[in-house]
């Protein structure tokens, strides 16, 4: 692209640090850009500014004590991380939670996925310069936070799942609130589409921008909505159904090109699919115990290791746990989706404009504390 | 052709957007004027922990067993107790929690064998120093009763 412009007499390249404290980098991410005028020749994402040592902390805490840490790794979808960690430990220790607990977990996890996508929707558009949708999204997201606050007692760092169940039972009010929320969210879609999807400025900013195709996605290990936007229907909930996801009827939305507009569409459609899962789960919600008795607080799983992958809001997330038979895990490792999603930036950003950097960075939905765990 | 089409389409999407924004003018506001108006707290709200007072004894039921102390992931609880006489169980004399480092996971409440811990619904917490976050629950309970 750059060769279409007349070459300057003396070519001057310069570096620009985007971040680490820029609001549109969504956390402490630094992207070192080498620029030729407005064009990017090279982009290096530099991470590690917020390292907190969660994996190491896992080694000197019991399995249950690590639960609050798991929701702090990704602060936008804490419950999904709780859920995944819980399932990993249950697989390691051979615990089978009651049916009701499985359904409650799925409902809450999907609610959390919607809330994460709603926040992405708001911040992405704010990166592009639109402020109104941000407020609309936070209004909707507030409803989810109220529902989850009522059931788990916290608005952001839930730590709601327990080995063999959930911490608290849900009641009729929860079911009514959730149904009302889904109805409300569906009534908001026309607004969102009129305000954003049909907006010509938005389309011009995101169409054919930041194309992550199948090949690139495969090379960098891109997962989640970013991979699905490239046209690969890969979703851990369908590929390796965990929990009770195989009992629900839902689709995996895919894009065609893998540009920012496709990623936007896929996430919007995913919220609708999550709504469908929640509705079906609420209809099928069985009675009975919400938590298995006789699971000790100081759980001692047998020796061995387990790798458990699940679908968080940003893609395939996995826990790798090694147990030496003591109450403390020998090793905790987390495979985070944002790492692969972020690092394809080096390829994607080449020969694009600085303004597109913000659009691309926003559209791939990274959470930096998840990478710097 | 493209130029005029862009202007017409751009104008139309502007009008569509303004319609959505305009409708919001006539909807009730979603924000709350906080100090004057308050929202109802969630019954499950996890604030800092407090002693439950049992009506039959008129006091807490903490036996200073130290389960909460051991289960706490952040190591912020210190509990001490004494035996009234040789054969009796312990009764807590000091229950100190450093709330500034608490991660509000609620494991202490879940693990308590006598179920004497509960979450308070206080959320407007402020202090001048770090020591303001360090509370002795036994002292606090006695102050609230007197």
From TrEMBL, chain A:
Keywords: Cell membrane, Membrane, NAD, Quinone, Translocase, Transport, Ubiquinone. Transmembrane segments: none annotated. GO terms for cellular component: plasma membrane. Residues 127-297, 298-373 form the NADH-quinone oxidoreductase subunit D domain. It is found in: Cell membrane. Its EC number is 7.1.1.-. It holds the Pfam family Complex1_49kDa. It catalyses: a quinone + NADH + 5 H(+)(in) = a quinol + NAD(+) + 4 H(+)(out). It is a peripheral membrane protein. InterPro entries: NADH_Q_OxRdtase_suD (IPR001135), NDH1_su_D/H (IPR022885), NiFe-Hase_large (IPR029014). GO terms for molecular function: NAD binding; NADH dehydrogenase (quinone) (non-electrogenic) activity; quinone binding. Belongs to the complex I 49 kDa subunit family. HAMAP family: NDH1_NuoD. NDH-1 shuttles electrons from NADH, via FMN and iron-sulfur (Fe-S) centers, to quinones in the respiratory chain. The immediate electron acceptor for the enzyme in this species is believed to be ubiquinone. Couples the redox reaction to proton translocation (for every two electrons transferred, four hydrogen ions are translocated across the cytoplasmic membrane), and thus conserves the redox energy in a proton gradient. NDH-1 is composed of 14 different subunits. Subunits NuoB, C, D, E, F, and G constitute the peripheral sector of the complex. This is NADH-quinone oxidoreductase subunit D. It comes from Desulfosoma caldarium.
TrEMBL record, chain B:
Its main location: membrane. [4Fe-4S] cluster 2 binds at residues 72, 102, 105, 108. It catalyses: a quinone + NADH + 5 H(+)(in) = a quinol + NAD(+) + 4 H(+)(out). The keyword Iron-sulfur applies. Binds 2 [4Fe-4S] clusters per subunit. It is a peripheral membrane protein. Its EC number is 7.1.1.-. Signal peptide: none annotated. Its cofactor is [4Fe-4S] cluster. Residues 53-82, 93-122 form the 4Fe-4S ferredoxin-type domain. The keyword Cell division does not apply. GO terms for cellular component: plasma membrane. InterPro entries: 4Fe4S_Fe-S-bd, 4Fe4S_Fe_S_CS, NADH_quinone_OxRdtase_chainI. NDH-1 shuttles electrons from NADH, via FMN and iron-sulfur (Fe-S) centers, to quinones in the respiratory chain. The immediate electron acceptor for the enzyme in this species is believed to be ubiquinone. Couples the redox reaction to proton translocation (for every two electrons transferred, four hydrogen ions are translocated across the cytoplasmic membrane), and thus conserves the redox energy in a proton gradient. NDH-1 is composed of 14 different subunits. Subunits NuoA, H, J, K, L, M, N constitute the membrane sector of the complex. This is NADH-quinone oxidoreductase subunit I. It comes from Desulfosoma caldarium.
């Amino acid at each position: 692209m750059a060769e279409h412009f007349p070459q300057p007499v003396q070519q001057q390249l310069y570096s620009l640090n985007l971040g680490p404290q820029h609001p549109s980098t969504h956390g402490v991410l630094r992207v070192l850009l080498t620029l030729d005028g407005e064009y990017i020749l090279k982009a290096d994402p530099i991470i590690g500014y917020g390292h907190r040592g969660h994996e190491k902390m896992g080694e000197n805490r019991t399995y249950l004590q690590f639960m609050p840490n798991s929701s702090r790794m990704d602060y936008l979808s804490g419950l999904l991380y709780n859920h995944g960690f819980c399932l990993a430990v249950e697989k390691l220790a051979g615990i089978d939670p009651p049916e009701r607990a499985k359904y409650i977990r799925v409902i809450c996890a999907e609610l959390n996925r919607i809330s994460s996508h709603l926040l992405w929707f708001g911040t992405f558009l704010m990166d592009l310069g639109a402020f109104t949708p941000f407020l609309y999204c936070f209004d909707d997201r507030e409803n989810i936070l109220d529902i989850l606050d009522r059931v788990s007692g916290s608005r952001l760092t839930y730590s709601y799942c327990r080995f063999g169940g959930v911490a608290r039972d849900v009641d009729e009010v929860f079911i009514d609130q959730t149904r009302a929320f889904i109805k409300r969210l569906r009534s908001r879609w026309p607004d969102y589409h009129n305000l954003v999807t049909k907006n010509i400025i938005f389309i011009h900013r995101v169409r054919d921008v930041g194309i992550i195709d199948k090949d690139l996605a495969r090379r960098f290990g891109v997962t989640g909505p970013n991979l699905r936007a490239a046209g690969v229907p890969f979703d851990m909930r369908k590929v390796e159904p965990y929990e009770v996801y195989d009992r629900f009827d839902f689709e995996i939305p895919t894009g065609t090109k893998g540009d920012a507009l496709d990623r936007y569409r896929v996430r919007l459609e995913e919220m609708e699919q999550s709504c469908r899962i929640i509705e079906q789960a609420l209809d099928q919600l069985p009675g009975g115990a919400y938590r298995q008795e006789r699971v000790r607080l100081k759980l001692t799983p047998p020796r061995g290791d387990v790798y458990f992958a699940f679908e968080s809001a940003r893609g395939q997330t996995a826990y790798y746990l090694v147990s030496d038979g003591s109450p403390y895990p020998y090793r905790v490792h987390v495979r985070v989706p944002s790492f692969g999603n972020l690092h394809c930036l080096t390829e994607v950003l080449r020969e694009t404009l600085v303004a597109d950097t913000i659009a691309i960075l926003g559209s791939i939905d990274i959470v930096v504390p998840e990478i710097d765990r | 052709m493209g130029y005029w089409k862009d202007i017409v389409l751009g104008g139309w999407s502007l009008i569509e957007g303004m319609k959505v924004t305009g409708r919001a003018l006539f909807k009730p506001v979603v924000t709350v004027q906080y100090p004057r108006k308050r929202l109802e707290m969630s019954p499950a709200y996890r604030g800092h922990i407090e002693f439950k007072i049992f009506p039959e004894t008129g006091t807490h039921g903490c036996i200073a067993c130290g389960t909460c102390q051991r289960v706490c992931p952040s190591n912020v609880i210190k509990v001490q107790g004494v035996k009234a006489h040789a054969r009796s169980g312990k009764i807590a004399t000091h229950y100190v929690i450093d709330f500034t480092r608490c991660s509000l996971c609620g494991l202490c409440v879940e693990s308590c064998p006598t179920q004497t811990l509960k979450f308070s619904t206080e959320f407007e917490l402020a202090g001048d120093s770090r020591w303001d976050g360090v509370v002795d629950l036994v002292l606090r309970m006695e102050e609230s009763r007197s």
